[in-house]
Design a protein that fits this description.
Helix content of chain B: 25-40%
Radius of gyration of chain B: 19 Å
Radius of gyration of chain A: 16 Å
CATH topology of one domain in chain B: Peroxisomal Thiolase, Chain A, domain 1
Number of helices of chain B: 13
Strand order of the largest sheet of chain B: 1-7-4-2-3
Distance between the termini of chain B: 17 Å
Number of strands of chain A: 8
Strand content of chain A: 35-45%
Structural class of chain B: alpha/beta
Oligomer: heterodimer
């Protein structure tokens, strides 16, 4: 089994600042996971959208803080990458299903290839971006 | 009037190359010339142009107009179709609709892209914000994610996927327009032993980016008959679905819009999967072929491996598959690449398959895949059923 790279030494590109997702990124400064919730249908959505993907209406769309805990929905091992991730392979890129039933794409850290599996419980792991925001990654929830 | 009142009276394609030595518009001019020569239709009679997406042209918001002007075309109907790799088939559907609506009589569908030598792409999607921060490689990573999901929840026999790769490669050996680098035989073991790119996606699962062009000349059946172009190909069923699962937060990535697109195309054509004489599915990754076999109803969801093991996909077999090699073994001409699958279906029905001519030319099923959304499968699924003019 190959050792996985945690990608924590990568100087990541800054995500562009867009008005739609500002509450999500602002919350990452305090290491909080804040995602959109449609109060009319009682469902969460991710990534942030300009409207409810369920109803097409904005009036019941709000932002709610969630624990960020969830489980691995599926994953891949990146053996090839473009800069700035080149030379940091292999690393995990996974889709994580939060307990609130949304999928988020992220790297998984502190996890070996043997320990990785679909369904593995994970919790947030924050890595700093250069402008004070933090990037949401995940690690196995062994607690 | 309906879809089946349209007629494809000519087809053309260039050699697929690793890097184009000529301009994208030169490729377009070559395709147009071949279509005019073949059909005897004069340039001045062309009144419609429908382009596929083109990475080379992606930075030009006036792409179809500019391209038409390069070719000296004065038109009544002009547009670019921007549903990614689905756009060559989407362009044919839109050309037929434009003819049906009376907007144009003689329409060139032109698919040209030289993405390798000249990319005009500039991102404005979810990807810069939600994917580039985690080293997501785009399509190979997306297919790694969905393959792992498939492998976890269903039976996945990688030797069966290898069988598809080998069949397509056998076909590329018989296609002089396929990229030369790919015209070498492979075995199932070569497939299995090719290096991992994004586990469980291997190198021989992936398309190789190339440059090239293809096109069709579409008119009405009535017009075709008037001109004596009775040898032509007729579209008899079409389905298109964009953003399967868009209104759900968690979507099984092994289910796709091809189920809905296929049902519509088959119903319109009055055919069922067992009637299909040859199958030319969009192939950006090998597993996409298996997923389409499932979603289009050749077999049940999750049983693709067994179906593949029981089926002969060679040009001499019971379900000939991508008989020009598909994009994986002929090369992917950027966002014009879907033209490779489409043109081969048309070519077979014209009886011009050469060394790889299939015996049963009663119909052909061609498909498209376009775009990769956030953590689902692909964005647009299309299915088109063609028959020779009976």
């Amino acid at each position: 089994m190959t050792a996985m790279n945690d990608t924590l030494d990568v100087t990541r590109p800054l995500p562009p600042l867009r008005t739609v997702s500002k509450p999500f990124w602002d919350a990452t400064r305090e290491k909080k996971v804040v995602i959109q919730y449609d109060a009319e249908v009682g469902k969460y959505q991710f990534y942030p959208r300009p409207t409810s993907i369920f109803t097409g209406r904005t009036k019941h769309l709000e932002w709610r803080e969630v624990s960020g805990k969830g489980k691995i929905f599926t994953y891949t091992i990146a053996r090839r990458a473009r800069p700035p991730f080149r030379e940091h392979e292999p690393f995990f890129v996974a889709m994580v299903t939060l307990d609130e039933d949304v999928n988020i794409m992220a790297n998984i850290v502190n996890c070996s290839e043997e320990d990785m599996k679909v369904g593995l419980r994970v919790k947030p792991f924050w890595t700093p971006l250069s402008d004070g925001r933090n990037l949401l990654l995940f690690e196995p929830d062994r607690g | 009037m309906a879809l089946h009142d349209a007629a494809i009276v000519g087809f053309a394609e260039t050699k697929i190359v690793l890097r184009s030595e000529v301009d994208v518009w030169t490729l377009g001019a070559q395709i147009m010339e071949e279509l005019l020569e073949r059909t005897g239709i004069e340039k001045g009679e062309i009144d419609g142009l429908v382009l596929s997406s083109s990475i080379t042209g992606a930075g030009n918001a006036f792409w179809s107009q500019t391209t038409a002007d390069q070719l000296g075309l004065e038109l009544d109907f002009c547009q670019t179709v921007d549903i990614g790799g689905s756009s060559p088939i989407g362009a044919l559907a839109r050309a037929a609709a434009a003819i049906d609506a009376g907007y144009a009589k003689n329409v060139i569908c032109l698919y040209a892209d030289t993405a390798v030598v000249e990319s005009g792409a500039r991102g404005r999607s979810f990807s810069e914000e939600w994917c580039s921060t985690v080293g997501y490689l785009g399509p190979p990573a997306a297919f790694g994610l969905l393959t792992k999901h498939y492998e976890t929840h269903h039976k996945l026999d990688y030797r069966a996927l290898g069988k598809l790769a080998v069949a397509q490669r056998e076909h590329a050996l018989r296609n002089p327009l396929a990229c030369e680098k790919l015209r070498v035989p492979i075995t199932v073991d070569d497939y299995l032993n090719s290096k991992m790119i994004a586990d469980p996606v291997r190198l021989l699962d992936c398309v190789m980016p190339c440059d090239g062009a293809s096109g069709l000349l579409v008119t009405s059946r009535k017009e075709a008959e008037k001109r004596g172009l009775t040898k032509c190909v007729v579209p008899i069923g079409y389905g298109e679905r964009t953003n399967f699962g868009a209104a759900r937060s968690v979507v099984d990535p092994t289910e796709t819009g091809h189920r809905a697109a296929g049902e519509k195309a088959f119903a319109q054509a009055g055919l069922k999967p067992t009637d299909i004489a040859s199958f030319h599915p969009y192939d950006d990754f090998i597993i996409a072929i298996m997923m389409q076999l499932e979603m289009l109803g050749f077999c049940k969801h999750g049983q693709g491996s067994d179906f593949i093991n029981e089926t002969d996909f060679l040009w001499t077999g019971n379900l000939p598959l991508n008989t020009s090699g598909g994009q994986i073994s002929a090369g992917q001409a950027g966002l014009a690449g879907g033209g490779t699958n489409l043109i081969e279906g048309v070519r077979q029905l014209f009886g011009e398959g050469g060394e790889r001519q299939v015996a049963n030319t009663s119909n052909a099923l061609v498909t498209g895949i376009g775009g990769i959304p956030y953590g689902r499968n692909w964005t647009t699924s299309t299915a088109m059923i063609l028959t020779p003019n009976a």
